[in-house]
Automatic annotation (TrEMBL), chain A:
Keywords (A to Z) from UniProt: Cell membrane, Membrane, Transmembrane, Transmembrane helix, Transport
InterPro entries in the cross-refs: MetI-like (IPR000515), MetI-like_sf (IPR035906)
Biological source species: Rubellimicrobium roseum
Name used for this protein in its record: ABC transporter permease
An example Gene Ontology CC term for this record: plasma membrane
Keyword RNA-binding belongs to the record: no
UniProtKB/TrEMBL annotation, chain B:
Gene Ontology cellular component annotations, sorted alphabetically: ATP-binding cassette (ABC) transporter complex; outer membrane-bounded periplasmic space
Signal is among the record's keywords: yes
Annotated signal sequence range: 1-22
Gene3D superfamilies, sorted: Dipeptide-binding Protein, Domain 1, Dipeptide-binding Protein, Domain 3, Periplasmic binding protein-like II
InterPro entries for the chain: Peptide/Ni-bd, SBP_5, SBP_5_dom
Main subcellular location of this protein, as a coarse class: periplasm
Entries under PANTHER family matching the protein: D,D-DIPEPTIDE-BINDING PERIPLASMIC PROTEIN DDPA-RELATED, PERIPLASMIC BINDING COMPONENT OF ABC TRANSPORTER
Organism: Rubellimicrobium roseum
Location of the Solute-binding protein family domain: 72-420
Protein name: Peptide ABC transporter substrate-binding protein
C-alpha cells in the first residue's frame, strides 16, 4: 500500500510541476497586470514604477526563475491586488470551499445512494419513474437560474432564509441546496444503472432464494459491488466542487476559491491564480488517493 | 453526559441561529458590487475602496460639494490661499484626533502627501498629479505650504483626492486604516464583511448612523433582493432591470459619459465632413428609454453637466441622415475615401445593453452611407486601441468608450482626451492645446470661460468625437432610510449623509 501511495505521489508531483509551468506562462500571455491595475489615465511614470516594483519588466524566464526559487521555500509571492501573501488569500478562501464541498458531497452521496438503489429495485415502478424524472431535471437544470429563483422564493417571498452571505447556519442552506441538485441527479442515475446490473447477478438471486430480507440484499450485498462505478462519479463531482462552485459562490456571496480564481484571472493577479491552482491540485490529489483507497476497501481484488 | 451534550448542542444551535441581520435601529448594512481588496487610504480614489473609507474613515483637506452648489468646501483645512509665488497655504483645523488617539497636525498632512508620491508604493491618488512635483513644507502645527511645479491653480481641488493618515503610517499598504473621520474600522473579514463604527471623539457633528456593515454581492439581482428582504439598507448599484419600485429605486447621473473616440489622423475620419456626418447619422433620442435608461442625458461634453465651466449652449448634433449622406458625397467628390470600411471597437459589458446599442448605431451609420463593421472586445484588447500609441495596422476604426469625470473640473478629462499629447486624444489642434494650457492655469470666472470655450470649439468646430450619453446608475434604498444617491455615489458614500425616516 505504501508503495502505491509513493508511486501516486511521484506521478502527481510531476503533473503539478507541469501545471505550474503551463499556468505560469499561459497566464502571462494574457497581458500585463499594469494596464488593469492602474487607471487608464495613469501617467507613464506610474506605469514604469509599478512594473519595476513587481518585476514585470524582467524577461519571462527570469520572472519564472524567481517564482520557482521562492516557491521551493514555500513563498507563493504577494498578491498584487490584495497586497498580502497570495497563499494566505487562497487558504482563507479554500477553507470555505472545502466545507461547502464536503457537506454537499456527504449529503448528495447518502441521498443519491438511497434513492438510486430503491429506484433500481423495482425497475419501471412508480418510485423509479418519479425518481427518474426528478433526477433528469436535476442533472440538467442551470444552477444560476435555480439559485436566483431560490432567493426570490425562500428569502424575498417567504422570508424563511437569508438571501446570501455567511454567518449563521441558515446562510448555508440555500447554497448547499442549490449545489446539491446537479450531482444528486447525476449520481442517482449512476447508482440506479449500476444497481440494476448488480441485482440481476447470480449471487443476488441466490440470496433471494435463501430468503434474505430485501433491505439486506440491496443495502448490504448488492450495494457494495454497485458502489465501484459510483465512487468514480462521486470523485469526479467532488473534484469539480473543490475547484470552486463559481456560480454559487458569486450569487450567494460565498468567499470561496472558485470566485477568487476567476477574479484573479480577470485582474491578472498571477500569484493568486498560481497559488489557487497549486492548493486545489493538492486537494484533488489527496481526494483521488482517498478514492483509490476506498476502491481497495470495497474490492479485495484491487487490494491484492 | 448525554444531557450535557444536548444542552451544549442546543445552546450552540441557538447562538448560531440568531440572525446576523438583526441589528440596532441606527445601524445600516450596505451591499456593494465589488470586492474591497485593500483598505489603503491612498487608494481611496478607486471607487470600491472610496465608497467604504472616503469621508467615513479618512478625510481630506477639502471636499467638493456634490449635493448643493457650494463648490469646494473646507474639511480638515479651515481655509487656504494662494501666495504670490503661486504656492498654496492651507490653515488646518484644530482639535482633530485620529481614531488611534493621536492629534492631527501639519506633520500628518506632509507625511500623507509624501507617502502618496513615494516611488516604493503605487498609490492611485498620484495619477491626478501627473507631470507635477509637489513639495509640502510644514510652517507650524496648523499651517502647511505646498509648492507645486508647475503652478497649480486647482490645487485646492486636487487635495480633495488625498486622504490624510497619521505621520506614523508606514510607507507600505496598510490593512487597518487610521483616519480622522467620523468612523473607525472595527472589523474586516475579507470576502465577508467590513464594519465601521461611529467614533465618540469625532471633531465634527456626530452622524446619525451608529454602525455600518458592508457586504459584497457581485450579482445585481441579489443586491436588489437583499434590500427588498430587509437584509441591507442601501445597494448603491443595482441593474436597470431590477429598478422597478419607485419607492425604493432611484436613478442618478453616475458621472460616466459614453462616446466614440475618433482618430483624426486616420482616413477617412481625418476629414471634418466625415466626422460631422458620423455625428449627424446617429439618432441619439431613439436610445433614451429603450436601450439606455430613461434618465440618461444626451451628451454635449465628455464630462457631466455638473462640471465647472459647463457650456449649456453647445447643442446636441441634430439627427439628419440625409445631411450626413450629403456631407459624405461632398467628401467623396473631393477624393476622400469615404467607402473605407470603419470598424466600431466596443468593450463587452462596458455598460448595460452595450452590444445592442452598438448594433443599432452600426445600422444607423450604414443607412447614412458608411461601411461599418462592429467588433466587441475584452477590456485588455480595448486598451490596445484606446490608448496611445494607437495601432496603425488594423484599418480604420472608431472606438466606443466610457469616460468618468466625477471630480467636477474639466481638467481631469480635457488633457487626456483632447490635448495633442493626451493619452487617449484623437486630435492635434494648436488652438485646443492652447485653450487647455490656459484654462488649466486660470482661476475663477476666467477658468470657467476658457473651459466653456474649449467645449464649444471641440464639438461645434472640430467635431472631435461622437458624444452619446451621460449615463445613469440605479440605487435601491430601504424605505426607513433617508438618503438619495448623487453623482458622487460612484466614488464615495458618506455615512454622515444618511438619515432615518422614523
Amino acid at each position: 500500500m505504501l508503495t502505491f501511495i509513493r508511486k501516486r505521489s511521484v506521478a502527481s508531483l510531476v503533473s503539478l510541476v507541469g501545471l505550474i509551468v503551463l499556468v505560469f506562462f499561459l497566464s502571462r500571455l494574457t497581458g500585463d497586470p499594469t494596464d488593469l491595475y492602474l487607471p487608464i489615465d495613469a501617467t507613464d511614470e506610474m506605469r514604469a514604477q509599478f512594473r519595476d516594483i513587481y518585476g514585470l519588466d524582467d524577461p519571462l524566464i527570469v520572472q519564472f526563475g524567481r517564482y520557482v526559487g521562492d516557491l521551493v521555500q514555500l513563498d507563493f509571492g504577494e498578491s498584487i491586488r490584495k497586497a498580502r501573501p497570495a497563499i494566505d488569500v487562497v487558504l482563507e478562501a479554500f477553507v470555505w470551499t472545502l466545507q461547502l464541498a464536503l457537506i454537499t458531497m456527504a449529503l448528495v452521496t447518502v441521498a443519491a445512494v438511497v434513492v438510486g438503489s430503491l429506484a433500481a429495485f423495482r425497475v419501471g415502478g412508480f418510485f423509479d419513474r418519479v425518481s427518474g424524472i426528478v433526477s433528469l431535471v436535476a442533472a440538467s437544470a442551470p444552477d444560476f437560474w435555480i439559485a436566483i429563483v431560490a432567493i426570490v422564493v425562500f428569502a424575498v417571498g417567504l422570508g424563511w432564509l437569508p438571501t446570501s452571505g455567511t454567518g449563521t447556519v441558515w446562510h448555508w442552506i440555500l447554497p448547499i441546496a442549490v449545489l446539491f441538485i446537479r450531482p444528486f441527479g447525476l449520481i442517482v442515475q449512476v447508482v440506479r444503472g449500476s444497481m440494476i446490473s448488480t441485482l440481476s447477478s447470480a449471487y443476488v438471486k441466490t440470496a433471494r432464494a435463501k430468503g434474505v430480507r430485501t433491505r439486506s440484499i440491496i443495502f448490504v450485498h448488492a450495494l457494495r459491488n454497485a458502489m465501484l462505478p459510483v465512487i468514480t462519479v462521486i470523485g469526479d463531482q467532488a473534484a469539480s466542487l473543490l475547484n470552486g462552485a463559481v456560480v454559487i459562490e458569486t450569487i450567494f456571496g460565498f468567499p470561496g476559491v472558485g470566485k477568487l480564481m476567476i477574479d484573479s484571472i480577470l485582474q491578472r493577479d498571477f500569484t493568486v491564480v498560481l497559488a489557487s491552482i497549486i492548493v486545489t491540485a493538492l486537494a484533488i490529489f489527496v481526494m483521488n488517493l482517498l478514492i483509490d483507497l476506498a476502491y481497495a476497501a470495497l474490492d479485495p481484488r484491487i487490494r491484492n | 453526559m448525554f444531557g450535557k451534550v444536548m444542552t451544549w448542542g442546543a445552546l450552540m444551535l441557538a447562538t448560531s441561529l440568531t440572525p446576523v441581520w438583526a441589528q440596532d435601529d441606527k445601524a445600516v448594512t450596505i451591499v456593494l458590487n465589488e470586492e474591497v481588496d485593500v483598505m489603503e487610504p491612498c487608494m481611496a480614489t478607486r471607487s470600491n475602496i472610496g465608497r467604504v473609507i472616503l469621508g467615513n474613515v479618512n478625510e481630506t483637506l477639502t471636499e467638493l460639494d456634490v449635493r448643493g452648489d457650494q463648490g469646494l468646501m473646507p474639511r480638515l483645512a479651515e481655509s487656504w490661499e494662494q501666495m504670490e509665488d503661486g504656492s498654496w497655504r492651507f490653515n488646518l483645523r484644530q482639535g482633530v484626533t485620529f481614531s488611534d488617539g493621536s492629534t492631527f497636525d501639519a506633520q500628518d498632512v506632509k507625511h500623507s502627501f509624501d507617502r502618496v508620491f513615494d516611488p516604493t508604493i503605487t498609490c492611485e491618488s498620484a495619477r491626478y498629479f501627473g507631470g507635477m512635483t509637489v513639495t509640502a513644507t510644514v510652517v507650524d502645527d496648523r499651517t502647511i505650504d505646498f509648492v507645486v511645479d508647475p503652478v497649480q491653480p486647482i490645487l485646492p481641488l486636487l487635495v480633495s483626492l488625498i486622504t490624510i493618515v497619521p505621520a506614523e503610517t508606514p510607507v507600505e499598504f496598510v490593512r487597518e486604516p487610521v483616519g480622522t473621520g467620523p468612523y473607525a474600522v472595527t472589523e474586516w473579514s475579507p470576502g465577508q464583511q467590513i464594519v465601521l463604527t461611529r467614533r465618540d471623539d469625532y471633531w465634527g457633528e456626530a452622524p446619525e448612523v451608529s454602525q455600518a456593515t458592508y457586504v459584497v454581492r457581485t450579482d445585481p439581482a441579489v443586491r436588489a433582493a437583499m434590500v427588498e428582504a430587509g437584509e441591507a439598507d442601501i445597494a448603491p448599484t443595482i441593474s436597470q432591470d431590477d429598478a422597478t419600485n419607485p419607492a425604493t429605486d432611484f436613478p442618478y447621473l453616475n458621472s460616466e459619459t459614453v462616446y466614440f473616440r475618433l482618430d483624426a489622423s486616420q482616413a477617412p475620419v481625418s476629414d471634418l465632413r466625415v466626422r460631422q456626418a458620423l455625428n449627424m447619422a446617429i439618432d441619439r433620442e431613439a436610445f433614451i428609454g429603450t436601450l439606455v435608461p430613461q434618465d440618461a442625458l444626451l451628451a454635449t461634453a465628455i464630462y457631466p453637466p455638473t462640471t465647472q465651466g459647463w457650456n449649456a449652449d453647445v447643442p446636441v448634433p441634430a439627427y439628419d441622415p440625409e445631411g450626413a449622406r450629403a456631407l459624405l458625397e461632398e467628401a467623396r467628390a473631393d477624393g476622400v475615401a469615404v467607402d473605407t470600411p470603419i470598424t466600431i471597437m466596443a468593450r463587452t459589458a462596458n455598460f448595460p445593453n452595450v452590444t445592442e446599442v452598438m448594433e443599432a448605431i452600426q445600422q444607423m451609420l450604414q443607412e447614412a452611407g458608411f461601411t461599418v463593421e462592429l467588433q466587441m472586445v475584452e477590456v485588455a484588447e480595448h486598451e490596445v486601441y484606446y490608448s496611445k500609441p494607437y495601432p496603425t495596422d488594423r484599418g480604420a476604426y472608431i472606438i466606443a468608450a466610457m469616460h468618468d469625470n466625477r471630480m467636477g473640473d474639466p481638467s481631469f478629462s480635457a488633457y487626456f482626451k483632447y490635448h495633442s499629447e493626451g493619452r487617449q486624444s484623437g486630435i492635434a489642434d494648436p488652438k485646443v492645446d492652447d485653450l487647455i494650457t490656459r484654462a488649466s492655469a486660470a482661476t475663477g470666472e476666467e477658468r470657467n470661460q476658457l473651459w466653456s470655450e474649449l467645449q464649444a470649439y471641440v464639438h461645434d468646430e472640430l467635431s472631435a468625437d461622437v458624444l452619446l450619453f451621460h449615463m445613469v446608475g440605479f440605487a435601491r434604498v430601504a424605505e426607513r432610510i433617508d438618503w438619495t444617491p448623487t453623482i458622487a455615489t460612484n466614488s464615495q458614500l458618506q455615512l454622515s449623509e444618511i438619515g432615518f425616516k422614523q
